Amino acid sequence: MKTIIITLIFLIPILGHAQSNIKPTLTLEEASRMADAAEAKAKAENWNVVIAILDDGGHLITLRRMDGVQLGSIDLAQTKAKTAVYYKRPSKVFEEQVTNGNIRPLSMPNVFASEGGVPIIKDGVVIGAIGVSGVTSVQDGIIAAAGLAVL
For residues 141 and 151, what is the distance between their CA atoms, to the nearest angstrom? Predict the structure, then answer.
């Protein structure tokens, strides 16, 4: 009986500590709202795109492929989002570096140097990313920003 009581006394501080370290996450509902907003912006501009939203591990939560989009944009939207998740910054940062002559980012794993991938940040923590592909990189970035704005 003494052993059980001692074990419980030691576990109480551990359990209390674990509860204070819960990190924010991206829900399917939030991802869907973001995809809806991004799609609405794309439709308003008559731009057909693919919108990919990933979780903080770079895994797909939702994907929207608008009618008439080139098949290559399916992978590109996910790759842009993966760049943003893995490096905790917009994929545009790498595009700017390459445009300015720094080609080193092109050799980094999971980097796609083109605007349109943006990290999703909640409470200071990257919880996922949105990636858009199908029009120019600047237009992809505008659509991604519209999706991000709903959070």
Answer: 16
Confidence (pTM): 0.85
Bridge partners, residue 122, by sequence: 125
User: Is pLDDT above 80 for 121?
Assistant: yes
Q: Which of 122, 134, 129 is nearest to 145 (CA)?
A: 129
List helix spans (H) across the chain: 2-20, 28-44, 72-87, 92-99, 137-148
Sheet with 117-122: strands ordered across: 60-65, 50-55, 125-133, 117-122
Distances in Å between the Cα of 25 and the Cα atoms of 31, 36, 45, 78, 117 are: 11, 19, 31, 19, 18
- In this prediction, residue 8 carries a pLDDT of 46
Phi and psi, residue 44, nearest 5°: -60, -30
Token couple for 134: 């199908």
